[in-house]
Structure formats: C-alpha cells, structure tokens
Amino acid sequence: MSTTTDTRPEHDGLVVRNAGMIYGTVTVLRSVDLDVRPGECVALLGENGAGKSTLSSIVAGLIPPAPGARMWWQGRPYAPQSPADALHAGIGLIHQEMRLLPHLSIAENVFVGRLLMRSGRIDMPTMVERAQAQLHRLGLDVPATRKVGSLRVAAQQQVEIAKALTLNARLLILDEPTAALGDEETDRLFEQVRRLKAEGVSFIYVSHRLAEIARICDRIMVLRDGGHVASHDHAQVEPAELVRDMVGRSVDRLFPNVPVPGPDAPVALAVRDLTAPDGSFKNLSFDVRAGEILGFAGISGAGRTEAMRAIAGVDPIASGGIELEGAALNPKSPLDAICRGLVMVPDDRKALGVVLPHSIWENLAYSNFDEVAPKGWLNPSRGVAFAERLIQRLGIKGSPMQSAGALSGGNQQKVVIAKWIARNPKVIILDEPTRGVDVGARAQIYEVIAELARQGMAVIVVSSDLDEVLGLSHRVVVLSRGEARGVLRKEEATSERVMELAVA
Fold first, then answer.
1. Could you point out which of 3, 177, 301, 462 has its C-alpha 20 to 30 Å from the C-alpha of 287?
2. How far apart are CA 38 and CA 332, in angstroms?
3. CA distance 429 to 182
C-alpha cells in the first residue's frame, strides 16, 4: 500500500480509497471508498460475505489491502502493518467473535498486551480499578478479578467492549457489539458511544440489527458481494430499503405466519416449579404445545439460558419437575434429553454448536450416529448422502466436505439446527437462533423455525432481540431475576409490556 504523501484529504478522520482484497482467484472486496469524520458513527451494512469484515480488518491492520489502496488517518498517510500499529495510531477493532482468554481475570483480559507496570511489576490493583470502572459504566455488576471463562456470553461481550473503552482510541470499529446484549445493556453501550462521539471519537458500526442503526449512527454504507452498492447520508432509512440494498431483493415478510395451535393440541413440554441450585432461576412453570412457538424474553441475567440448559440436561436442577408428552423427564445429561426427544441449539455456536475444523457432514453425523452408523461403523459415503439431504432441506450454502469454519455465521447456524432436527425431536430449544446472522439468512432461519412448528414440533425461542421474540412467538414468557413475571399472548405482547415485566 502506498505511504506517499498524496493530496491531503478534506477532513482529519479516516479516509480509505480503492480498498480491495483478493484471496486466490476470489475477489472479496472491490475498490471500496470509505470516509469516517471525527465524532461520526458510520454504519457498515451487508450480508455475511459482503466484505464488511474484510474492510474492517484492513482498517484495523489485520490484513493488508490489495495494491492500489490508499488510506489516511488524522490527515496523514496510514498504512498499518499489524493490529499493534493500528492501536498505536488510535484505531481499535472489537471483534464479533470474542477473543478473550478464559483462564485470565476480567482485568487481565482488559489490559492484555499492555499490562500496567509500577516499579518493574505488574500493577494489578490499578488494572482492577480501571477495569471495574468500565464495567460499572456498562452496567456489568461483577468483580474485575473474576475469571472470564466463568461468565456467560453476554457478560463476555461487555468485557470486550470495556477493553475497547480503556484503549482511549479515536476510532473504534464495533463488529456486532450488541449481538449478546439485552436492551438494558445495549442502552448503556449507546450512552457511552454518544458520549465518546461528543468528544470527537469516531465509530464504524457493523450490525445486522437495523433498528440499532437508526438509534446510534449518522450515515450508512452498504456493501454487497464485495462492492459498495448504496450510501445514505442519514440513518433514518426504512428497514425494507436497507434490506433491498443488502440482498438485492425484497424480503417482504421477515417473520412468517404460523397457525396458532388449537386448544386440543397436546402439551409437548410441561415445566413445574423448576429451581436452580444457584438461584439463577426459581419456581419456573410453563407449558408449550405441539406446533407452538413459545418465546422467552428478559434482560441479560434474567435466567433464560440457565433455565433452558437445565431443561436440556446440561445443568443440574435443585427442585421442580419436567414432563415430556406427559411422562416425567429428569435428565441427568444432555444425552438423556436427546434420547427422549428434547434437543437444544446453544447460544454460542462456535464454542458449543459446531466443530469448526471438521466438515459439514462430520458435524451433522456427530449427533446422528444411529442414522449414519447403525451398526457402529461410520460409513463416509452414507454420512455424505445424509448431509446432502439436510443441506438441501435447510438451504445451507456449502458442500458436505467443506469445513464448518469456512461457512458464514448464518450457514453455521443452519448446520447446528440441521443436526438436531434430523432427529425429529418432539421439542427443540433455540437459544439466540440468529445471533450474528445477516438479515437474508435470518429470514431463512425464521422460515425453518416456522416450518418446524407447522409440522407439529414444539419450539422454544430464547433471544435478546425483542423484535425476534415478538415476531416469531405465539406466546412470550418474560423472566426477571430468575422468575417468570408473566406470559403474554401474541396480541398483547408489545415491546412496552414486555419491558415493564422484564424490569419488574
């Protein structure tokens, strides 16, 4: 990349000209220009694979652009050779996929690579104090000395954000920063973004949540297939127009219609007075019928994921009961629940849902050995044929031999869903089913969920995206501090009503 002193740009923010990237014979970014002025938040939109992450990585020094690209930062030519160069210049990237060290404390993760020193020793008290201050600003009420590996996904995401806020960077690239956050945590983050903008800090904001764009961004830039296809000089743009920009077509109905189960539909799952040993949820009771989509809403820490993990046999239960199609279910392990017909798609697909280096067919086979290896021997050709049927059924963009790690987030999520629905379960729990998934893939996953319900499966959807819960569910259970505060029918479940109960 050129480092010559070309004509001075017209502003002192970030100026990118003719950025491109080619991997082998595939062009993933084509001649893209980007301007981010001081104190401005620019939204970068596009489907998975559109080039957003590539452009962000170029700006953050993770990868070099193709020859011919030029960049300026704060009025000077800018050519980072590494992320450290970018950080030194005042540019930081917060990845969608968290890169925390689970065995270190929150404070150590916040300051990793730039540990504070005093008299030749690590100044842990000051690191803890400063990290704790950032956690407080973000509303995360945990000690900065706690190990990151003990935190839930939402809390880990807030640690990543706290790490960024301590960098004192002048340009922050936020890649899906609210993917694991509830409404209250998102509001706190936006408060910090607005404050920093007022101080002249710039932001590149990458998100699939279109409602957030209008709240926090000043302008919008849309990429598709590696190229710049649209720009908007304000952020108050109708979501339908942005969807057309991103996918090249109209997604007329993001949430599909699913008939409401009749009163004679059998109860597939009944939960009574369920309580966790650690009190993360208590006295939880609900029913879900065959063909019903039951949503769970609540702010982070409400106990939604903890309850679902217990029902699926992952975590222990202190008291209470579970019935599956009228028979007692007391799972001692996930295998117990799976064999009885209850499966769960976890909230962290990369850590818990797929084995990234392994192929699609292998990932699908791991949960279906009784199908692909009925005599105890795994036949690859049988496994590949099995995978081809599921790939076609769910519209996965990939081949059986392709590694799961090479897929987009949306297609990885389809693989996770596919491996469980192949077992024809009676009940499926989906925890954050579209986290980090673009709008086109979201619509496809919503249609898969709807079709499962139409076929008579009982579906539970847990999501920090309130629009998702309201759009999909026949009824919504609202949790607050581990307890169910109410069950709302679709016609009475509004954002306002849900939040009233969620903060009760």
1. 301
2. 55
3. 19
User: What local confidence, expressed as pLDDT, does residue 2 receive?
Assistant: 38
Reduced to 3 states (helix: H, G, I; strand: E, B; else coil), residue 269 is strand
CA separation for the pair 16, 69 (Å, rounded): 8
Q: Kind of pairing, strands 227-232 and 327-328?
A: unpaired
User: How large is the C-alpha radius of gyration of the chain?
Assistant: 24
Residues of 86-110 as b/e, b for ≥16 C-beta within 10 angstroms? bbebbbbbbbbebebeeeebbbbbb
Whole-Å CA distances, 41 to 96, 214, 233, 436: 18, 11, 11, 20
Chunked into runs of 10 residues, the chain (504 residues) has average pLDDT values of: 53 93 82 96 87 92 92 94 89 79 92 87 94 85 92 80 80 85 80 88 89 93 92 91 78 78 94 95 96 91 92 96 95 94 92 92 94 86 94 90 88 93 96 83 89 96 90 95 94 88 79
Query: In Å, how far are 235, 268, 315, 342 from 328, measured between CA atoms?
Result: 52, 12, 17, 13
What DSSP letter does each residue of 43-54 carry, written as one string?
Answer: EEE--TTSSHHH
Residue type (1 letter), 401: M
Rounded to whole angstroms, the Cα distance separating 253 from 240 reads 10
Spatial separation of the C-alpha atoms in residues 122 and 80, rounded to whole Å: 28
Strand order in the sheet with 14-23: 26-36, 14-23, 70-73, 76-77
Q: Listing from the earlier edge strand, what are the strands of the sheet with 202-206?
A: 91-94, 171-175, 202-206, 41-45, 219-224, 227-232
Q: What is the pLDDT of residue 382?
A: 92
Q: Is 272 helix (H, G, I), strand (E, B) or coil?
A: strand
Note whether 446 and 454 are within 8 A (CB).
no
Contact 456, 401 (CB under 8 A): no
pLDDT of 1 = 40
Cα distances (angstroms) measured from residue 122 to each of 114, 118, 128, 165: 10, 6, 11, 21
Q: Which of 149, 146, 137 is nearest to 189 (CA)?
A: 137
What's the DSSP call for residue 219? E
Maximal CA-CA distance, the chain: 75
The pLDDT score that the predictor gives to residue 385 is 95
Q: How far apart are CA 425 and CA 337, in angstroms?
A: 10
3 state DSSP class of 424:
coil
| Angle value at C-alpha 278, between 274 and 280, nearest 5 degrees | 60
* Coil vs helix vs strand at 448: helix
- Residue 300 backbone phi and psi in degrees, to 5: -55, 135
Angle at 464 between CA 211 and CA 504, to 5 degrees: 105
How many whole angstroms separate alpha carbon 132 and alpha carbon 338?
A: 41
Residue 253, pLDDT score:
58
Q: Are 403 and 358 in contact (CB under 8 A)?
A: yes
